[in-house]
Write a structure and sequence with these properties.
The protein is of the alpha+beta class. The protein has twelve helices and 15 strands.
């Protein structure tokens, strides 16, 4: 089918554009049952409808492809070949219909027994790692211990003791399926005795008790890059639970929790801190030593500085995760008035008060305040 002649995927499945995955699955199942080639032999039109429904289902159940299609239509998919039907649509046909009146077995789509023995990806694991504020800035290599399942070394994952620990199921004779004749239909179902495996465990492994896996603590080192923030997560590929029947292992997700710092507060890649100074330092200006992530550094405070004024130290903040540059360190000035004065201090301040002009008028409103008052 050419791009211009293709029907709308939502129209093909008979669903709205807001349909969720269960709705898409249900709609596709009905169409596939209706137009499946086994139920419509020598019917090219039914075969075309079946392929059309499979293509629509393949695109709309793929998050990235669906987003492209919703934005650009068929034209957006054609350039990258994104509209090609996912081959798993046909391979997994019985997964969709397996529980629907046994039609998966009726159409001969693989059977429950073989599906149970198919390679399956292992589950993902989560590990919560708490690190110090300094380590989040500098990065570190952390050694962690992750509880997970591992293949039993005694039986090599077979679950049986010895090579003859498994025996063929006497009911299905090792096929994992049993066959029934119902009228002119030949129906096959998963063997209830062996659960579709085709074999029965005669002598379980004494180490894993037939499970093929044991619970263990896995040690590994994780590289935490400079600049990670609280709540971020890292994926460690292949360090999750092992897969079943030779399937790949899942992944490990390390969630980062950063301890707060006594002096610095992080906002994205900038660091903020407060610097208290006295009224003389604020009026005359001074040089003050402050702590940075690289150590102590002297900064110049200009004369006449006010509370809430800020000084920005370029490149003294948090490293960017992409390795290009750093944020800034923003110093918030806090002018502190002494609560208690000595006799000499009081005398000097009284003299200063006489020399300074009185300025008790309210500060003029800022432009922002004026706009806010006008709108209210």
């Amino acid at each position: 089918m050419s791009t211009v002649s293709k029907r709308d995927y939502y129209e093909i499945l008979g669903v709205s554009k807001s349909a969720d995955e269960p709705s898409l699955k249900s709609a596709y199942r009905k169409l596939a049952l209706k137009y499946h080639p086994d139920r419509n032999p020598n019917n090219p039109e039914a075969e075309e409808r079946f392929k059309e429904a499979a293509e629509a289902y393949s695109v709309l159940t793929d998050t990235d492809k669906r987003r492209i299609y919703d934005t650009y239509g068929h034209q957006g998919l054609s350039g990258a070949g994104a509209s090609n039907v996912n081959p798993d649509i046909f391979a997994d046909f019985t997964d969709i219909f397996g529980d629907f009146f046994g039609f998966g077995d009726l159409f001969g789509g693989g059977g429950g027994g073989r599906r149970r023995n198919r390679a399956q990806r292992g589950e993902d694991l989560r590990y919560d790692l708490e690190i110090s504020f300094e380590d989040s800035i500098q990065g570190l290599e952390a050694e962690i211990q992750v509880p997970r399942s591992e293949t039993c070394a005694t039986c090599k994952g077979t679950g049986a003791e010895g090579a003859d620990g498994w025996t063929d199921c006497s009911v299905c004779r090792g096929r994992g399926e049993v066959y029934y004749q119902q009228g002119f239909l030949s129906i096959r179902r998963t063997c209830s005795q062996c659960g579709g495996r085709g074999k029965l465990l005669r002598r379980p492994c004494k180490t894993c008790r037939g499970a093929g896996q044991i619970e263990a603590t896995h040690k590994l080192k994780v590289r935490i890059p400079p600049g990670v923030d609280n709540g971020m997560k890292m994926r460690v590929t292949g360090e999750g639970q092992p897969g079943a029947h030779g399937g790949p292992a899942g992944d490990l997700f390390v969630f980062i929790a950063v301890q707060p710092h006594a002096f610095f507060e992080r906002q994205e890649f900038d660091l903020h801190c407060s610097l208290p100074i006295n009224i003389a330092q604020a009026a005359l200006g001074c040089q003050v030593a402050i702590s940075t992530l690289e150590g102590e550094e002297t900064i110049k405070i200009p004369e006449g500085v006010q509370s809430r004024d800020t000084l920005r130290l370029r490149g003294r903040g948090v490293p960017m995760l992409n390795g290009h540059g750093r944020g800034d360190l923003i110093v918030h000035i806090e002018v502190r008035t002494p609560h208690k004065l000595t006799r000499d201090q009081r005398r000097l301040l009284e003299q200063l008060r006489e020399l300074l002009p009185e300025d008790n008028q309210p500060a003029e409103k800022s432009l922002f305040d004026k706009i806010r008052d006008y709108l209210m």
